[in-house]
Specification:
By secondary structure, the protein is mostly helical. The protein has a domain at 104-178. It has helices spanning 33-49, 54-67, 76-87, 91-100, 105-124, 129-141, 146-191, and strands at residues 5-10, 15-20, 25-30. Strands 1-2-3 form a three-stranded antiparallel beta sheet, with no helix packed on it. The chain is elongated. The relative contact order is 0.11.
Length: 192
């Protein structure tokens, strides 16, 4: 009859041990660097994120994604961490989500301009966003005071960008909050 075998991960010794049901070690293999990184990552997730209340983790995630809609010059994860400390939510989830969504920042910025432009277009008196963008580019290409044309262009796109950033951070952050909270609650139900 075969005895049951278990894998035992020892962080202090940096080895994976094969242990039978009686606790006898059958073999040990040293962890390679990638396995050590993975084990540290999973233990950090287990300690920092999954032990907290779901709404704190979800608020941290929403904060982490919301920060990336604003220009932070690459320090979005730092802002997310400090805002999480101030708000009393999960610092680990805010920082992790901010870092993980970092590669999506160019798409987020394009979405900011699109949403901000959709809001500003009726105010500017144009029929659609395309007409407004074409008129802004034509202002730049006209002969005349270049500085005034550039400032006019930057004023429009700056206002559209920031307005879009606020709208996107609130809407997508709220949606992400409910999504993460749902996932964590579902996970907690199945683990009990």
């Amino acid at each position: 009859m075969r005895s049951l075998l278990m894998l035992y991960l020892s962080q202090s010794r940096r080895v994976v041990s094969l242990v039978d049901i009686g606790g006898n070690r059958l073999s040990e293999q040293p962890l390679n660097r990638w396995d050590r990184i993975k084990s540290k990552f999973y233990s950090t997730i287990e300690k920092q994120i999954l032990k907290e209340k779901p709404y704190k983790v979800a608020l941290g995630c929403a904060l982490g994604i919301g920060v990336n809609f604003f220009p932070t010059l690459g320090f979005g994860f730092v802002f997310a961490f400090f805002l999480a400390v101030i708000a009393g939510v999960s610092r680990a989830s805010a920082t992790a989500v901010s870092l993980l969504t970092g590669p999506l920042v160019p798409l987020m910025y394009a979405l900011n301009i699109l949403i901000g432009g959709l809001v500003i277009t009726p105010v500017a008196g144009k029929e659609n966003l395309t007409d407004l963008i074409i008129s802004q580019y034509s202002k730049i290409l006209r002969v005349g005071d270049v500085q005034e044309q550039i400032f006019s262009f930057l004023e429009f796109f700056g206002a559209a960008f920031l307005l879009g950033a606020v709208v996107n951070a609130v809407v997508i952050g709220t949606g992400f909050f409910f999504f993460v909270r749902f996932i964590l609650r579902k996970r907690m139900k199945h683990s009990i």
